[in-house]
Design brief:
Layout: H1 3-17, E1 23-30, E2 36-43, E3 52-54, H2 56-63, H3 68-82, H4 91-94, H5 96-99, E4 103-109, H6 114-117, E5 122-125, E6 128-139, E7 142-147, H7 150-156
Antiparallel strand pairs: 1-2, 2-3, 4-6, 5-6, 6-7
Length: about 160
């Protein structure tokens, strides 16, 4: 089975195993160093967030002989471990005075991330770029980050020194 057919099979089979209210979305997600992964979002309409489960490793499982049923079980198990239990309040993201205490830095390869850096405030440092992220989540190891984009940064009216 080719990769595109694998993605269609996963989407069809996961949909058939879920309540009709759930929506599925498979979309490319650009990660660090220009890597792009196919992310599956299982969207429960009761909540305003959904985890992204990257499907690329599961295709390698399939190529190694793991059955589709086992892969579906693993994907649903991952979803059940990460599924939201309440809405996520994004209000703090819109207000710099509330967001500034949640800003963390992330060091990435400058050359391998040039495309992404066109839309992200950053500081060049040697062969790296320092980018800024909002830390979200109650405690480690369960957390997430939101990369601060130019659009978000500009909406704050802050400057690079404040960031």
């Amino acid at each position: 089975m080719k990769y595109t057919e694998f993605l269609q099979t996963i989407e069809t089979e996961i949909t058939s195993r879920l309540d009709d209210n759930f929506k599925l979305s498979i979309h490319p997600v650009e990660k660090n160093n220009g890597n792009v992964y196919d992310g599956l979002m299982i969207i429960n309409p009761k909540f305003n967030i959904a985890p992204t489960i990257y499907l690329n490793p599961y295709y390698h499982w399939y190529l190694d002989g793991v059955s589709i049923d086992s892969i579906l079980d693993a994907i649903l198990s991952t979803y059940n471990q990460c599924k939201p239990t309440e809405d996520f309040d994004i209000g703090f993201c819109k207000d710099f005075s509330k967001a500034k205490d949640k800003i963390i830095i992330h060091l990435i390869n400058y050359e391998k991330n040039k495309k992404m850096l066109q839309h992200v405030p950053h500081i060049k440092y040697l062969d790296f770029a320092i980018v800024f992220q909002l830390y979200v989540g109650p405690n480690l190891p369960e957390y997430g980050t939101i990369t601060i984009t130019d659009a978000l940064f500009n909406s704050w009216g802050a400057d690079m020194e404040e960031l």
